[in-house]
Structures are given as C-alpha cells and as structure tokens.
Design brief:
The protein is α+β, with helices and mostly antiparallel strands. It has six domains: 2-155 and 173-233; 239-324; 364-628, P-loop containing nucleotide triphosphate hydrolases (Rossmann fold, 3-Layer(aba) Sandwich), CATH 3.40.50.300; 641-732, Orthogonal Bundle (Arc Repressor Mutant, subunit A); 745-903, no CATH class; 911-960. The strands form 14 sheets. Strands 4, 5, 6, 7, 8 and 12 form a six-stranded antiparallel beta sheet that branches. The chain has a four-stranded antiparallel beta sheet with strand order 2-1-3-9, covered by helices on one side. The protein is globular, with a radius of gyration of 34 Å.
Length: 961
C-alpha cells in the first residue's frame, strides 16, 4: 500500500507537500519533501480506525513551511499549530473536479451511489474533451469520483475566479438529484484525498462500506489545460443576469416550458433565479443531454446547450421561443419574436474597483464614507444597516434586522433611504409599501431589503415579520383568502432583511427582540452639523459621488454572488457582562460573522469553504455591540430614543418621586406625550409599552391630593405619582461589555496557570489549600480569592484587628472559605484610589485592582487618551469611569474582567445581583429566608434582607470610594 501512496504523491506533488488527517475531534498534520518517508508514515496512520480521511495539498506549497513539521506527522494539532493557507501557495498546478453522490452527511456512499458518481465523471470528462481539454487523471475518492486536470496558473484573484467559475459551470450543467459537482474546491490551499488511503465516513456497514481511494486512469502524458479553455468553460453560463427584454416581460419560464411540452429533468436555484435542465436538447438530434434554460431574478431568460455543436452556451432563447410560438407579422423578414438581448457588458471600472476594495481595502469604511457624503453623522446607524445587508450572504445566521428610532424630522428615513441607494435596484423596494401590498408582491426576490417607515405594523404583518426573522433562510408562506374567498398562498422569499424606522417602539416585544435597536442622533450638535452640510451643498453644489455609489452597488453584487458559512474559531473565549436576553449574544456572533463575510477576500477558508473570522472582526463587532447597548441604542433595554432621554432626565433631576407634570417641564414635551412615555398607549388596537412596563426602576401609585384654592375652596383630586430608584436604574442601565479572554495555559496537573505576578503569590493552590511547593505558578482564581488586610479593619477569618506585622499580608482563601498560609511582605501603602490598603508587592497590587474595579463602571473611549491610568499609572488609557475623573488602561480593565473570584459573604457587591422570579431556594448567606436575587458572576443567591444589608454597607462605604 505504501508504494501506491508513494506513486500518488509523486504524481500530485511538486516539492514540499502537506499531509493532513482528520480524526474524531482532532487533526494530524506534517510537511514532507521525502516522499518515501511520507508514504511510510501515512501507511501507519491509515491503520488507525479513528482516522476518517487522509488528505494532501494539491498546489505548490512554500518550501519554508517544511520547518513547521519537517518530515513528520504531529498528532492532534493544537490551537496555535498552523496549516497551509491560501497565501502559502506559490502556484496552481491542478484544476480539481470532485463528483459526490447525494446522500446524508457523515456516511459513506452505497454501491449504487458510488457507481452514479463514477458514471457522472465519465460524462464530464467526455464533455470537457469536446471543449478541448486534454485527458485527465481519473480516480476513485472512496465515496465518489475525481477528475484532475493539470494547469499552470499564478495564485492570484483572477486565477481563483477562473477556477471558481469553471466549477460553478460544471455544477450547473451536470449536478442533479443524484450527484453534485463540489464548487468549494476553488481555493488554492484546498486539500485532496490521498489515493491509497481509506475513506471512513460513519460506520463500516455492508450497505455503506468504507473504501480505499485509488487511481483509475493516468494518461501517458499529463498535458496542461490552456487558460483560455478554463475561461471559456467559466463563461458558458452567465454569472450576472442580463437585462430584462422589453418585448417579452412577465413570462413565467416554468409555465412556458410546461405549456409547450418541453420536458424538464430537474430545476435548481441559480444566481437568485432558477436553472431548468431540459430532458432532451431541442436544438440538435445528435445528442440528448446538455440543454438548459435560466430565468433570472429580474425575469430575464437565457437558454442554450453546453455542447459545441449547439453553440457551447450561446444565447438561444429567441430561437427556442420561435420554435414553439406563432406570431403574425406584416413582413416576412420579421419572423422572430424578439431581438437577441444585448450581450452583457464587459467588466467595468466600478466592478474592478469593487474587487480591489474587497481584496485590499476596507469595504466597511468605504460604505460608511459614501453614506456620509449624503447623510451627515449617524455612523452607528449606518454600520448596523451595512451588517444587516452582509447577513444576507452568511449561511449560518438568522439575519440581522434593524429598528431605528428617534424624533420625527431627525433623519431616520433619510438614513435608511441613503443606505438603500447603495444597494443594487434588484435588491430593494422603491417607494413605500403597505403590509397588505407586501403579501401580493410577486416581484420580491431573495435578499431584498424591506423598509417600513413610520408604519403601524398590523397583527398579520407582525406575525409575518416574526416568522421571516425566525426562519430567515427559508421562504415564508402566508395563506389568505381573496375577495372571491379563494385560498391564495403568498410567499416572502428567503434572506430578506427588515428595516423599521419609527418614533415609538414596535409594540411587540417578540419583534423587538429580533432587531438591532439603534437610535438616530437628534442632538443639537448633530442639528448644527446637518445645517452646515446643507449650506455647503447649496453653496458649491452637491458633490459628485456617483462613482462611489456605483462602486458600492458593485461590491454588493460581488458579495451576493454566493452565500458562505462563517466560522468563529475563538468563540469559546468570548465573554459578556450580561446574557439575560438570549437573542442578544446570538446577534453579537452574527455581527462578527457579517464583518468577516464582508472582508471574505481577506480571510482564510477552512476545508469546508467556510470563511474564518479573525479577532479584528470581534473587536469591530464588540465596539458596535457596545454602542447599541449604550449611547447609541437600546439593544438590551429595548428603549426608544425618547424613552432613554426621559429616564436620563429623571436620573439627573435626582428625585425619588415625580409626576407627569414634573417630567413634562423637564423634557419640554406636551403633557400627552410625556404621559404616553410613562404609561404607554394603544393605537389602532395595538398596545405600546411605556416606561412603567420596561424599566424596573419606575413604579406608580395613586394618591388623593387636597388643595386650598385662593377662594377658600378645598379641592380634592387624584394624582399619579411615579417613584424612581436611582440605584436600580444605574444597575439596569449599566450597559453591556464584551471581551475576549486570553488563552489559558495548563499546568501538569490540569490547573489553569497565570504567567504574571510576583513571587509571593506565584503558588499553585489545590482544592485543599496546600502549597505544592511550585513557586512559579499563580493560584487558580476559581479556587481561592484575595483578601486585603487594611489598617484598623478586622479580618474575615479571625475577627481581630490586624497588627503592624500583618501589614501587606496577602491572604489566600479556598472556595470553602478556608485561609491558606499567608505570605507576609514588608511593603508600604499603595497610593491612589486604594490609599490606606497595606499592600506590599506587585502581586497584591494587581489583586487589589481586580477586587476594587467593577468593569461595568467604565465606559470605553472612542479613541485612546493620553491620561494616566488611575491604578497603574500607564499611558494611554482606553476607558473612563462613568461620571468622569478616573481613567483606566486596557490591561487593568482586562485583568478586572478576567477575575473569576467568588466573593465571600461580607464582601459581596450588590450591583452584581438582579432580581428574578424563578425559584432559587434558600439564601446562600443567612441560610434561612427565600432567595430572590441572583448573581451569575458571584454564583450566589440572596434574600431581600441580605440584599438590603449589602446596599446599606455600600452606602456606608461610598464616602471613601
């Protein structure tokens, strides 16, 4: 067997080659320039029944990669072990065609399925020979069939597009309900089944056996396919839809084919339209297969045959229509039904510029700058809309839909329409549309943007919206009755996104929970910027940005050509300060995937063709997610702009009780508007929630007020009083922060280790609190916590005041609240916010930082600031405490977020807790009363009395914070 493997490697490889084996939950990999040694090691690896398949790189690999794992296979690669990426390929050597039988995933093929793939490979090889291709290498992959054609192409974007287009053409022409041509094999670093090894998918059963991949036929001379042949193959089917013919609008191709008795073998989606594979060729009797017809999303029709004798993919729809339709004409010369549609225009400069931006530039920034040419400000709104559009091209997402709120006349509609202008016309609805008209719109296509501007959503439309967002990847059927009381089934196509612009909320919490909730900027400063922009435009004329707009449309055309999966390899490291609304973390992941999809030409792909997100995608998504959870939106609270402004006004007033009139005076609104903000209202039968229902810090009670008028008459009236709990509001409105944990290093006994800290705290503490004697490791923060002894305070363990000898002592405690051998320091007090704490070494200082900093108290700065960190003194700083005055560097903030210590009773922070209605059992502190507050961070449940004690203790300490 090793000889068969060696022969396959000699045939396929050119210099260094990577071997990659996929096993259950593990990947093994090595690089070889010694092919004999490769065959020997692969043969041993193939004997392992846990190995599902062994693969090699097809194209020329950078020889420097040999040093990664030189002539050896490393078992079970770690997270930091790299494999071959597209950028590591020097040149393309093969055009690979992989024919797979249609079957459930994760299982081997049956003999019948296997034979069908081999037969399809023979048909494809015969067709390509007709197109001028030389003889290929034919092989059995174990479950399907392979064809390998020798090429000599550079590893650049143009070559990738040619290979991709050729595979897409073969897929369209030969894939059916039995076999498919894999179009994901276009990337340069694609790995390929190594012949001579076993393919193990699922269990080895008599019906679906494991088979060995093998070479079937190798030509005496493996000739190179000229690039022109590949380009011709890629151009057989239109990659962009032609313009709709003015002479034959509204033709339903499926109905037309059925009406004229033209048999269809199968249908499948194609470029937003439908591809019909015809059973027999209507243009020639010399062959039966090869004929097809396409109806694009805009209604245009293209028909032809892929055989050279039938034009090799040339447009023949006018001829086909003329064969089956009779049309009376005045002159015999005009016998055709319609003129031949114009040839699709060649690639223009806007498309070339779009590819350049996607490959080397920043498409997101380009969209935002083009948007700001027409609409001033509102970058957060614009970025949410761009991410919503990108979600239409991500396979593994439920879509991102946007709800924009703000006062009337502040630019909600203009922002949405401006972004719509950057989308190709085929993917947007022009003008407004009512909910009823949407049901009957037959021109909707997949990937359309649906904009509803200050439209009250009917109950029916709200149900459709919930269905469309919950089943984003599938068409939504809606059954209704016509005026003749006949059933009509209306369909909203898949992957449509919804943009809603309203002053108030949407009236349905289930709808709001599915939306990115963002606010328009209606500040006085924004009003001035808009006015200045209008003056500039009127003075010099509207700046010409048409080229940028057309380029934006070309970018979206390119992105929308395929729907790709996106994988987030670092997803396990993502942390969030709140996960109460379970849909919001999903939206964060979708934001990461959408940004990676937008930058897909600058991202690696995995073996399944999925785009690999980078940490920079997380950073950008986290910044946007934090913005819509804070100053620019109500993602977590689901507040509208007006509601958030009302709550901030009450908080600034510093009152505990207020009336509608008090708030009206502060807001400058009418009594009716203010009352609606607080109590909610009902419009056209739809209830809209107010702050009483949304915000837990506000409650209501009625009272009878007695007043003496100036005429000596006593008047009694009922008045509504609203109470406001500032502490509850601060906790509820604290915002959401997300971050990326560092990779933990693992010690020999499986405990997590930290690499920083002074020698006093670099001890590995076990569950029993014993010191194993290793002074190079820091204790697990889940097993112990830091307790800092301050002057004139009593320790938790003894209740005795600390002496001078104990100054600077760093005391470890296990999760069982048992003290561990304290380590003494002869240090001095640390200046700064922790003044008075007798901390004597850097390890204690870092621990004090983790103990005293609450990340929720800090707001990220839009740009780094040259101010000293109030903890460590470093510059620059990245965050500022709410209310201002204290700046924090990124390292200190990260250490505070990474602290997983469980606070002990007596040092709990009430701000960690939230009230819950679920049964939590008894209080973890007093062990007597029923727990009603829960802290996920502290993993502690407490009762009403203990929570009140924590608040009182906090207020008592507030003067020294």
């Amino acid at each position: 067997m090793s000889e068969e493997i060696r022969r396959a490697v000699e045939l396929l490889a050119d210099g260094v080659i990577e071997v990659r084996a996929l096993a259950d939950g593990a990947t093994h990999s090595g690089y070889f320039d010694d092919h004999t040694l490769l065959a020997e090691q692969v043969e041993a690896l193939d004997a392992d029944p846990a190995v599902a398949g062994i693969y090699v790189t097809l194209n020329a690999v950078n020889p420097a990669l040999l040093a990664r794992r030189a002539n050896r296979i490393k078992m079970r690669l770690g997270r930091k072990d790299a494999t071959t990426a597209d950028a590591d390929i020097l040149r393309r050597r093969w055009f690979p065609v992989d024919i797979d039988p249609v079957r459930p995933s994760g299982v081997s093929s049956t003999d019948a399925e296997h034979d069908a793939a081999l037969a399809a490979a023979e048909r494809i090889a015969a067709y390509l020979a007709e197109q001028g291709f030389p003889a290929p290498i034919k092989a059995d992959s174990g479950n399907g069939a392979h064809l390998l054609y020798r090429v000599d192409l550079p590893n650049d974007e143009a070559a990738t597009e040619v290979v991709k287009g050729a595979l897409v053409a073969l897929d369209a022409l030969f894939s059916n309900e039995t076999v498919t041509v894999d179009t994901a094999n276009h990337n340069a670093a694609r790995i390929w089944k190594l012949y001579g090894t076993t393919s193990r998918k699922g269990d080895n059963t008599p019906e679906r056996p494991h088979r060995r991949a093998r070479l079937l036929a190798v030509p005496d001379e493996v000739s190179v396919v000229p690039r022109e042949r590949l380009e011709h193959l890629a151009g057989l089917l239109l990659q962009k839809e032609p313009p709709q013919s003015k002479k034959s609008p509204g033709i339903d191709l499926a109905a037309w084919l059925a009406e004229h008795g033209i048999a269809v073998r199968n249908t499948r989606p194609w470029q937003g339209g439908t591809l019909f594979t015809l059973t027999e060729c209507p243009f020639s009797s010399a062959h039966k297969d090869g004929a097809f017809a396409i109806q694009f999303a805009n209604g245009a029709i293209f028909a032809g045959c892929h055989h050279q004798t039938c034009g090799g993919g040339a447009q023949r729809w006018p001829e086909l229509r003329g064969m089956h339709e009779q049309k009376r004409t005045r002159t015999p010369e005009k016998t055709t039904v319609e003129e031949k549609p114009p040839t699709p225009p060649p690639v223009d400069e806007h498309y070339e510029r779009a590819i350049q931006i996607l490959r080397d530039g920043d498409p997101l920034t380009f969209f935002l700058e083009t948007f700001n040419n027409a609409h001033v400000g509102d970058r957060t709104v614009a970025e949410c809309l761009v991410m919503s559009l990108a979600s239409q091209s991500v396979e593994n997402t439920n879509g991102l839909h946007v709800a924009v709120s703000g006062n009337s006349g502040k630019g909600k509609t203009h922002a949405c329409v401006t972004m719509q202008n950057l989308i190709p016309d085929a993917y947007k609805l022009k003008g407004t549309v009512s909910d009823k008209a949407l049901y009957y719109d037959d021109d909707l296509r997949p990937g359309t943007v649906l904009l509803f501007d200050d439209v009250s959503l009917s109950d029916d439309l709200q149900e459709v919206l919930k269905s469309a967002t919950a089943n984003f990847r599938e068409p939504i059927e809606h059954r209704t009755l016509t005026t003749e009381r006949k059933l009509r089934v209306c369909t909203i196509p898949e992957r449509c996104v919804w943009w809603l612009a309203k002053v108030e909320d949407l009236g349905d919490d289930q709808v709001m929970n599915r939306m990115l909730t963002v606010w328009i900027d209606d500040t006085v400063e924004q009003d001035k910027r808009v006015f200045d922009h209008m003056k500039e435009v009127e003075a010099v004329g509207r700046p010409s940005a048409e080229d940028d707009v057309l380029t934006c449309r070309a970018i979206w055309e390119t992105v929308k050509t395929e729907v790709l999966p996106v994988r987030i390899p670092f997803a396990r490291r993502i942390q969030s300060s709140t996960t109460q609304n379970r849909r919001n973390p999903g939206m964060l992941f979708d934001l990461i995937k959408c940004r990676a999809r937008l930058f897909y030409l600058q991202r690696d792909r995995d073996d399944d063709g999925a785009v690999i997100a980078r940490e920079e995608d997380f950073a950008a998504a986290a910044k946007l997610y934090t913005a819509i959870n804070g100053e620019a939106g109500g993602q977590e609270t689901k507040l509208t702009k007006n509601e958030a402004a009302a709550l901030e006004t009450v908080a600034r007033m510093g009152v505990e009780v207020f009336t509608v009139r008090h708030l009206q005076s502060a807001l400058g609104l009418s009594y009716y508007q203010t009352r609606r903000l607080l109590n909610g209202y009902v419009s056209r039968g739809t209830p809209y929630s107010g702050l009483l229902e949304k915000c837990p810090a506000i409650s209501l009670y009625d009272a009878t007020v007695t007043e003496d008028s100036e005429y000596g008459v006593t008047v009694r009236r009922r008045e509504q009083y609203f109470t406001f709990d500032a502490e509850v509001y601060r906790q509820w409105r604290g915002g959401t922060s997300v971050w990326l944990d560092d990779d933990p290093d693992v010690g020999s006994n499986g405990s997590r280790l930290q690499q920083s800290g002074s020698s006093c705290c670099q001890q590995e503490i076990g569950q029993s609190g014993e010191d194993p004697g290793n002074g190079d490791q820091e204790p697990d923060r889940d097993q112990c916590m830091y307790l800092y002894v301050q002057q004139n305070e009593r320790t938790e363990s003894t209740g005795e005041a600390t002496s001078d000898d104990d100054r600077g002592a760093c005391v470890f405690r296990t999760a069982a609240n048992e003290p561990v051998n304290p380590v003494h320091h002869a240090g001095n007090a640390v200046p700064g916010p922790n003044a008075g704490a007798l901390i004597g070494s850097s390890c204690c200082q870092r621990a004090a930082t983790a103990a005293t900093i609450n990340p929720a108290d800090y707001i990220p700065l839009p740009a780094a600031k040259d101010e000293p960190c109030h903890v460590c003194g470093k510059r620059p700083t990245s965050s500022v405490r709410r209310g201002g005055g204290e700046y924090l560097c990124y390292d200190c903030l990260k250490k505070a977020k990474r602290s997983k210590a469980q606070p002990l009773p007596g040092v709990l922070d009430h701000r960690m807790f939230e009230r819950t209605k679920v049964d939590l059992g008894r209080c973890d502190v007093c062990k007597e009363l029923k727990a009603v507050y829960r802290s996920r961070e502290a993993r502690t449940n407490i009762c009403e009395g203990c929570y009140a004690r924590l608040v009182r203790e906090w207020n008592g300490r507030a003067g020294v914070r």
